Amino acid sequence: MMIEVLGAIGFGVIAGSFALLAFGGDSLIELISGIAVLTGLRKDSSISGGSAGGQSKKTEQFTSVLLFALLPVIGLGAVYSYSSGLKPEASPLGIVIAIGAVIMMPYLYIQKKRIGRETRSLSLSIDAIESVTCLFMAIALLGGLLAEYFFGLWWVDYLATGVILAFVAKEAVESMRETMLESMAGLDRKAGPFAREKWDRF
Question: How many domains in the chain?
Fold first, then answer.
């Protein structure tokens, strides 16, 4: 995963490919999220209580902020680059990164889903779904890079960037919604049955 992140961002900078940069940025955020989920699972296995859950909620909020921040950074950069007439270069190494991601993402999804089911971890199951989204982004990236490499269609890179950012936006909204739902559920648990009874009367 780290190779994917460094490769996508590094080759994206070299080739001037915003599609690679967008994919690398999302992969970096997914890596941070995955590390946080694993850390939360370790804490859950060693301690019981709300501290691990609170840390998980903070991580999800941080991930949402990063996803939302990625949209204008890459989006505005791509718009400026396109309007300035800058043409991304073909990137054979970027194609290798994209092919690797297309191969690895289904495997990661299956493994995360299996471990999430075994450990009854909702966070890991949600993280597995992000791997599916990342697979679709990798397919869009690969299509754009191949069209650019074989047919010289440099503008397809910007099209692929738009598709990837659409998936990133979907991830950001879903992540924010999950965080809000968890916060509401936490408030409901703290309120207790008596408070819920009072609320139901209104």
Answer: 1
Q: Is residue 177 part of a domain?
A: yes
Angle in degrees, 0-180, between the axes of helices 18-46 and 122-151, rounded to the nearest 10: 160
Model confidence over 70-104: pLDDT tens digits? Answer: 999 899 999 999 998 888 988 999 999 999 999 99
3-state secondary structure 73-99: HHHHHHHHHHHCCCCCCCCHHHHHHHH
C-beta of residue 165 within 8 angstroms of C-beta of residue 22? yes
66, 102, 150, 201 from 109: Cα distances, Å? 22, 12, 31, 44
Alpha-carbon distance values, 97 to 3, 77, 94, 103 (Å) = 9, 22, 5, 10
Task: Check: CB of residue 164 under 8 Å from CB of residue 137.
Answer: yes
Please indicate, yes or no, if residue 36 is contained in any of the structural domains: yes
Q: Is residue 179 part of a domain?
A: yes
Q: Which residue range forms the structural domain that includes residue 139?
A: 2-187
